[in-house]
Amino acid sequence: MEALKGIAASSGIAIAKAYKLIEPNLTFEKKTITNVEAEVERFNTALATSRTELEKIRDKANEELGSDKAAIFEAHLLVLNDPELISPITDKVKSEKVNAEQALKDISHMFIMMFEQMDNEYMKERAADIRDVTNRVLANLLGVQVVNLSLISEEVIIIAEDLTPSDTAQLNRNYVKGFTTNIGGRTSHSAIMARSMEIPAVVGTKTATTSIQNGDIVIVNGLKGEVLINPTPEVIEQYRKEQVRFEAQKAEWAKLVNESTVSADGHHVELAANIGTPNDLEGVMTNGAEGVGLYRTEFLYMGRNELPSEEEQFESYKTVLEGMKEKPVVVRTLDIGGDKELPYLDLPKEMNPFLGFRAIRLCLEEQDLFRTQLRALLRASVYGNLKIMFPMIATLDEFRAAKAILLEEKEKLVAAGIAVSEKIELGIMVEIPSTAVLADQFAKEVDFFSIGTNDLIQYTMAADRMSEKVSYLYQPYNPAILRLVKMVIDAAHREGKWAGMCGEMAGDETAIPLLLGLGLDEFSMSATSILKARSQILRLTKQEMKELADKALQMSTTSEVMEAVNQATNK
Fold first, then answer.
1. Nearest-5° angle of CA 131, CA 132, CA 137?
2. E strands, 222-368, where?
3. pLDDT band of 187, cuts 50, 70, 90
4. For 308-332, how does the pLDDT look when each residue is reduced to its tens digit (9 = 90+)?
5. Summary mean pLDDT of the chain
6. What is the four-CA torsion angle of 51, 57, 63, 67, rounded to 10 degrees?
7. Is the model's pLDDT at 347 over the cut of 80?
8. b or e along 357-369 (b: 16 or more beta carbons within 10 Å of the residue's beta carbon)?
9. Which of 256, 281, 292, 500 could lock onto 522 through a cystine, CB 3.0 to 4.6 A?
10. Residues with active-site annotation
11. Nearest CA to 546 among 523, 508, 503, 515?
12. Which of 296, 249, 304 is closest to 276 using CA atoms?
C-alpha cells in the first residue's frame, strides 16, 4: 500500500476504483495553407461548436450547482468571444498562412504564459481558464472527442493532473465518489465546486497521476488530506467504518439545524453563512445559519458583458433579505480588482493588483457604479435586516467618504418618496493591518467590524497565499494575527459594537476555540461548515477558551499555538 499526502479540499471519505483522466491527444503538425478563407472558416466552426458545448455545460452547472458556479462558464464563453484573443489568431492565419491549430497554439500560449507569470490567484485561474477553453477549440479543430465525465456509469475516483471547471461541473455525484489531483489548493475552482457537491477531494498530491494506475483501488481521505493506493482488505474495512462514523457524525450535526449556537457555559455567538448569489439561500437555511455574514455582490457583475442595472441588483438583494426572514444579512459592496476583474471595465493593468486599484478604492473613483449599487441596497433594505459593509478600507477618510455617498443617495430616495429602512448598520471589512491597528478609532464611527482573514493574513505576513514557495507563511494561528484580531474585537466591544469574521479562519476547527476565547461575536463561513462548527462550540466553555487565547497571545510561534489548542480541546 502506498500513501500520498495532499491538501484536504473537501471533507469525507471515498473508496472506489481509480479512473485516470487521460487528456485527449491534441498533437498536430504545423502546415502552410493556401486557402486562407477556408481555414478561417474552419476555425470559426470550431469556435461555434465549442460555444455550444460550453453553453450546455453552463446550463447543467446552473441547474445542479447554482448560478455562481455557472458563472465560471459564462466567463469561458466570454473568452471565446474576446477579440483580443480571437482576432490575433485569425490575423495569424491570414498573414502567415499557417493552419488554425498552429495559430491557436501560438496565441493562446502567449496569453497563458503572460497570466501565469502574474503572481496572484485570479490571474493564474485566468490562465487555467484560457487553457481549458482553447484546448476545447483545438480538440474541435482536430476532430478529437473531449472526455465527457458525465458519461461515467460506475463508481470511481477521478485521478488527474488537475480538474478544470468544465471537468468538475460534469461530475455525476452518483458515480464519482471523489477525486485527487497533482496540483491545486483549497481555493481552486475544482476544490470549491467539490465542496458544493459534497464530493471528498484531496488536491496538490504532486504525484497522483504517476503513482496511481487505472483500476487501482483508492481511498481518498478528505478529512486528513491523504490518498491510499491499493490498501489491504483490512485497511479498506477500517475506512469503511470511518465512512460510517463520518456519515453518522453528519446526521448528528443535522439535528442541530434549529439550535442556537451557545457554548457549554451559556455564551451565545452567531454562526452565519458566506454566499455569492440568491441561489445559495437553500444551503444557508438547510444548514441552520443564523444569518448571512458575507454576501459577495461581485458575482452579480461577473460572467457578463455589462454592468448589472439598479433594478436587477435590487431584485437580488430583495430576494436574499426576504429569504432570510429578518435574520441579519451583511452585504459587502463591490469588491472588484485584485483577484477579480470585469472585462467590460477598462481598469489599469498593475504590477500588484492585490495592492492596487480595487474594492472601495475603485468605488470611490467610479461613483456612478457605486451609487447605483447603494441605491439598489437602500431600496431593498425595507425587505429585511440589512447591514452594509465596505471592503478594503485602509483609512478613516475612505470610510467617511463612502458613508457620505450612501447618505446622499438615501436622502435622494427619501425625497422621492421611496421607503428606506432606518435601521441599516454600516460597517467595514478589516483586512488591512493599518485598519486593525487603528481599530479603536474606526470603532467610534462604524457600527460593526467583519474581519477578512484571507487578505489580513497575507498582508500581515507579506506572503501571497497562492504562492507555493511561501505558503508556509499563511499562518492563521500566528500570534501576530491573533493579536490583530484581539485588537479589533476589543476596540469594537469598548464602543458597544460587534465584531465578526468572514474569512476562511472563521470556520477553521483549530481557530474556533481561539476566536471564541478572544470574544468574536459572529463567525461567518461556508454553509456546509456551520453545523460542524456549532457542534464544536456547544462542547467548549467561553471561560476556558479565554484562558487558552490569553496564553496563545503570549506565545512565539504558530506551532506552539496549535499544540496549546490541541491540549486544551483534547484533540
1. 95
2. 226-229, 270-275, 292-296, 328-332
3. low
4. 999 999 999 999 999 999 999 999 9
5. 89
6. -70
7. no
8. ebbbbbbeebeeb
9. 500
10. 189, 502
11. 515
12. 296
pLDDT at 465 over 70: no
Distance CA(155)–CA(488), nearest Å, equals 49
Please identify which residue in the block is written with the cell numbers 446622499. 408
Is the CB of residue 331 less than 8 Å from the CB of residue 297? yes
Burial class of 397 by CB neighbour count within 10 A (0 to 12, 13 to 18, 19+): exposed
pLDDT at position 278: 87
- The end-to-end CA distance of the chain, in Å, is 27
List beta partners, residue 332: 296, 389
**pLDDT value of position 409:** 98
pLDDT tier for residue 571 given thresholds of 50, 70 and 90: low
Collapsed DSSP state (helix, strand, coil) of residue 531: helix
Rounded distance, CA 129 to CA 164, Å? Answer: 8
What letter represents residue 82's amino acid? D
Give the integer Cα–Cα distance in Å for 373 and 367.
10
pLDDT tens track for 146-167: 776 776 889 999 999 888 766 7
Would you place residue 300 in the very low, low, confident or very high pLDDT band (cuts 50, 70, 90)?
Answer: confident
498-501/522-525 β-pairing: parallel
Question: How many CA atoms within 13 Å lie on the side-chain side of 459?
Answer: 21
Strands (E), 442-544: 448-451, 498-501, 522-525
Q: How far is 511 from 509, CA to CA, in rounded Å?
A: 6
**Listed residue (202, 207, 205) closest to 220, CA to CA:** 202
- In 3D space, the residue among 442, 524, 523, 536 whose CA is nearest the CA of residue 488 turns out to be 442
Beta strands in 335-464 (DSSP E): 385-390, 425-430, 448-451
Domains parsed from the chain with CATH numbers: 2-23+148-252 (3.50.30.10), 36-142 (1.10.274.10), 255-569 (3.20.20.60)
